[in-house]
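dude i think i finally got it to work??
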Amino acid sequence: MSRRGPLIAAVVSGVIVLLAAVLIVLPKKSEVGKVRDDLLTAQSEEASLQVQLKVLQDAQAAAPVAQKQIDKIQKQIPSTADLPGLFRQLRDVANLSAVDFFSFSPGTPITDASATFSTLGSAIVVTGSYFSLEEFLHRLETLRRAAKVTSISLAASGTETTGGAGQLQMQLQVEFFTTDTSAGPGSLPGPTQGTAPVILPTASPTPAESPSPESPSPTESPSATTGG
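look at this
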């Protein structure tokens, strides 16, 4: 019996050690593995956040340039049709180009199919020398408002007996744009809703200088002026 005592004690000790390993060591090992996985996940998330931070920092650095571009586009395609402002710009172009006659007849704004902007089709008639008309086109191309010329026609204007030899009449169909999608028949654009439209004095051309019958007739908006 004395020999079995130490053997039994050794077996019991082994069982206790095994149970301790199962109940204590293995759970701890599992926890260590989970912590390692959490660490790897956190490191991956940190790397992703660093990339996002770099993107945001780059966007912040580029913000002033982007804002200037936005401001430029807003001037080229304003939030309202702003016919008085457009008329003044075109009148200045006509005066600087030294044309003898200028007429602007805006049409009704039409909302684009994308419903993101409206198109203002307009008829412009200018009379003058070849070089003054060329200058007018150049200044129209660099106008502060975005403009798309859809058609141009030229014809002789005046004769030697009328003192207009060498004069040309140019008729343009031009599209201007606005981000106001409520513009159209029976509506007042954007912020001007509820107020009376601005009407500038008009100057009717003489019969010899009248636009062709195909040109839209001026309505309650700036329509014509003469300049030299």
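The helical segments are 4-76, 83-97, 130-141.
im so relieved honestly
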